[in-house]
Every structure is written in structure tokens, then in C-alpha cells.
Fold this protein.
Amino acid sequence: MNQQTDHAKSLDAELFQTRLLSFVNAISGFVHNISNPLTLITTRVQLLNLKMPQNSEFEKMANQSKIIVSMLNNLAYISQNIVSTEIKSLNINELLKNELTFFRTDTFFNHEVKKNYQFYPNLSKTKGFYFHVSTLFFCIMHLQLFLMRDTAEKTISVKTSEKDNNILIDISGTGGMLSDKEVNQICLKSINLETEDIKPRQLLINNLIKSHQIIPGNYILTIKSDHDQTYYQIAIPIIHE
Amino acid sequence: MNQQTDHAKSLDAELFQTRLLSFVNAISGFVHNISNPLTLITTRVQLLNLKMPQNSEFEKMANQSKIIVSMLNNLAYISQNIVSTEIKSLNINELLKNELTFFRTDTFFNHEVKKNYQFYPNLSKTKGFYFHVSTLFFCIMHLQLFLMRDTAEKTISVKTSEKDNNILIDISGTGGMLSDKEVNQICLKSINLETEDIKPRQLLINNLIKSHQIIPGNYILTIKSDHDQTYYQIAIPIIHE
């Protein structure tokens, strides 16, 4: 009887993961299907805009449709890469731009946080797991958004550069680092992802903050913090194809 | 050292699930954000259509924008409900319509399968887990799509009705049931979800087909099969609020 229950539980967990994964994998098909009616509208709007350039309505509509197309491209990019654990060519600027665009689905980040991006234009490509780089970045962003919830000024800066055969991602944000005591208090809470989830932060905190330096794969993450600001640097070795 | 590796593995698995879940949860925000530029276009198109009803272009554009809006609503509905394991009011017709619309992200289902739907208009609501009903349906659909890959005619029928205080979902499709031998052969394969995944089918096969009757929660699933056609019936007891 107990065995049956355990079996049902592990089946449920497996089906849960299967459905999450199938949803993520279905997004390409969704974007493909929605592109048909969208292209029809976009093409007509562009045609009308060419025919009647004096009518600013059509120009506005053409611009809005470009925004829609770029949001759908972002959704497709994230869904195709988010769980990719194959070693492949990584364009770190492209990865960060897409992850940051997708972070705009978070209302707080979208509306209340000032963003400051500097992407080094000639950044080398490297090889690695999309999942590792993006998850490290995802965890840092979640921690940082949490740290700045109550700060007066809310600014996140993301910058890429190259040094000593490494790609450097520098992230900084307003809001000071949590103390060990606060970390422990937070870890005791169990809060839902949809509202105030502590899970990714907790994982990060447990694994990163206590040591203030970890090496996932070959990446080096360093965290520094003063009263008002926290600084993170991810160093990714450049591996040529 | 081994412990460290195990710990890293379980951390990876947890982060994997966290990221899948956060992607699914982010979809509401995505739909919200994309609605702004879309509403701008839709409103202008509708206005132009009212001003110039003789111009069929605007009517076509208005219709296409309605399709886009309904696809986005479907995406939001699925993302909000897919992993819901709280007991709540279930509108089975609405659930099936949305799941079937979302199945159109599958190219084979969208383009090659004839669909036949009959939704009983006065179907009672019931209470239960969205996840259970939809996952049962999801597994049946995946099995059925697999069974009809090579059949000449490809038709799926979905019908709802009520009988003896139960909501009945009748699904049938062209393609006969797999034999036990075939089931075992399929279970030995390990194929990726994106191409020819056998995982949901395998779970279904392991748990449903061998007995030809299971009861997940209080639902009863019966499967009958002849040479050319397979029939599934899910009976869900009506629980009043």
C-alpha cells in the first residue's frame, strides 16, 4: 500500500516535469502558429505605411508590430535555450540581452528598476552549457531584485568585457548583502514562487554566499558587497571552436 | 568528493525544475506585456474598419488580430493551469477546448489530423485537480497521436457528456492498440521529447494499458481497442461546490 503511494508520488513528479518540459518545448510551435496571422497584419500595415507615408497611424502600427515580433522572438529564444545542457557555442551578449528582455515579464523589474547595460561589442564567443551560464545569471538577478525591494534607488547594471582570455560579466545593484543571520532566517521561510519565492535565492545563498566564491563548471563567480551596493562578477574562460 | 558530486547533481535537478517552473510562471507577464502593443494595433484596425467598411483589408486584419488575441489567451490559460495541483472548480469543456487548442503547437496534430469535437453544452462543473485531468488527457492524446502516425486515415474525436452523476470524456482515434510485446519494445527505447519522445506514452503504457483500467484520484479510465480504432473513456464524478 505504501509502495503504491510512493510509486504514485514518483509518477506524479515525473509527469509534472514531463508536462513542464512539454510546455516549454511547445513554445516554438506556438510562436510559429501565431506568426501566420501576425505576418498578415504586419505586411498589410507596412504596405499601407508605404502607400500613405503622410498617415502617422500606419507608422505607429508598424512600429508596434515590430515590438510584438521581437517579443515573440525573445520567447522562442528563451524556450529553446533555457534547459539546454548540451555543450554549444555561446554568444554571451546575446544570452544576456535575451535573458534581460525576458526578465521584463517580472513587473517589479520591468517598471521599478533602472537598467544600465553595456555590452562589449567585439566579445568573443565561447563554448559551454547555456543552462549553467543563464541559471547563474538568473539566480544573481533574483537575489539582486530581492536585495533592492526596499531600497530607495533601484538600479541594476550589467556589463560585459574581456580580460586575460576570460569573458567577464559584471553585475551590480543597489542594496547591500544579507548577513548570515538573515540568510538563515530567509531559509526557514517557505514561500511560493508566484509571490515571494525564496527557492532560487535560497539555493544561491546556500551555495554561493556562504563561501562568497564558487566554481560551477569552469566559471568563477565572485561577490563583493558594501552597505549600499552588491557586485557580482562571473568569469567565463574563452574556449575557441 | 562523491557527496559533493551528488549534491551538485541534486542542485542541478532542483535548479532545472525551478527554471522550468519560473518560465511557465513568467508567461502571464509575457502575455500582459505583449498585450500593450497588440491592443494598440487592434484598436486602430477596428477604428479603420468602422471608418472604411468598404475596405475588406481592415476587416481581414481585424479578424487576424482576434486570432492572435485568442491564441495568447490560450497560452495564458494553459500556463496558469497546467501545473495547478490545488483542488478547484473544473469546467471540463473549457479545460478540453484549451488543451486541444494548445495541442495545435504540435505540427502533426495541427496539420495532419482530422478533429471531431462535441462538447455537451450544459455540462456540470466539478471539483478537482486541473493537473490530474489534463495530464490524463495529455497522455491519452500523446498515445493516440503515436498510434495514428502510420494509419491512412487520421481522425481524433473528443466528446463530453453526463451520465449517472459522472462527466464522461470520450476520446477515440484511428489506429489500433499496441500489443504487450510492442509496449515492451517501445519501453526499451529512450527517445527525446522534441523528436519522438516515448516518456509520457511509456508512463501511460506502464500504468494504464497493462491493466486496461486505472483510477487516478476518483477518475475511472477505460480503454477499448479493435484493429482500426482505439477508444478511451474518462469518467469524472460530479462534485458540487
